[in-house]
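User: Please predict the structure of the protein below. I'd like the answer in structure-token form so I can feed it into my own downstream comparison script.

Assistant: Understood. Taking the following sequence of 341 residues as input:
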Amino acid sequence: MLNIEELLATRRLILLGGKGGVGKTTMSSALAVLAASTGRKVLLVSTDPAHSLSDAFGRSIGDHITMLAPQLWALEIDPDKEADAYLERVLAQMRRYAGPDQIHELQRHLQLSRQSPGAQEAALLERLAKVIEDGLQNYDTVILDTAPTGHTLRLLSLPEVMAAWTDGLLRHNKRSQHLSSVLKHLTPSRSIDSLTGDPNQHHSADLDDKDAELLNTLLRRQQLFNRTRRLLHDIEHTAFVFVLTPERLPILETERAVQALMSQDIPVAGLIVNRLLPPMDDSNFWAHRRQQQEKHMLDLHHRLPTLRRCLVSLQADDIVGLESLQMLGNHLISSSVGVTD
């Protein structure tokens, strides 16, 4: 069975993912409230630009850590603001290397890249990596309301991507050709295990100040992603939970997501199946919908037979505010089922 109490007591990083509209933010919020009620210091983080956490708690949260209740804090990361701040940092860094006649062209290229999904994603992933690392230093539990199949799989590949990108950047920069002797410290074969110390120890003493700063900046970013990658693979401290509804498309998407994470050896703790219809005898429509759900539940068990599940019935009222979220959290504890149920 998916033991919610054990999950919250033993895992420090919990990531909830799922198809849009299945109740992922509500479940993330309920788990955070439940964990905080046991005395754990909890940070709840969302990357949803629609500010769904604010809607769930019935109050404004925003892009700064906000206390919602004793032992419970929340943060809504704004992807657009992250992209702007990220490009500003890139521009500030490149001003040190570009000539005055190149700055205007550089600004134009950065403005064009602002509209690229890749720029927003890079900024968001770097912020997430920092939030995870800082959060685990200051909180007992960090709960991320995000999409593992998108952001997380890309986050796992970033150390290797950073290595290849850094290699190309330095080799094409004429004034940094002499840095080739240190590129071995950025190769994918070594990036996973070797970059754990002080980046200033990686043979930057013989470089001028600007080149050493560039190299150390890249090394620090690569190390950050390496640490995050290791944490995401840590089965003792990290858990992914997928939220879905008993419908065909969410089941298919969840199956693909679980397979993708398992292929990367990332631990998946189980499933929260939301909006189950209770038995009804007085309506042909609802009886038919119930039969459809039962059919999809059998399909879910066939596709993901080994994953533990938590079943949540369709609620009569909207889940908004601490009291409602606490009640939902208590319901999660009592609604866990084993894989054979």
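That's the full token string. The longest strand covers residues 268-276.
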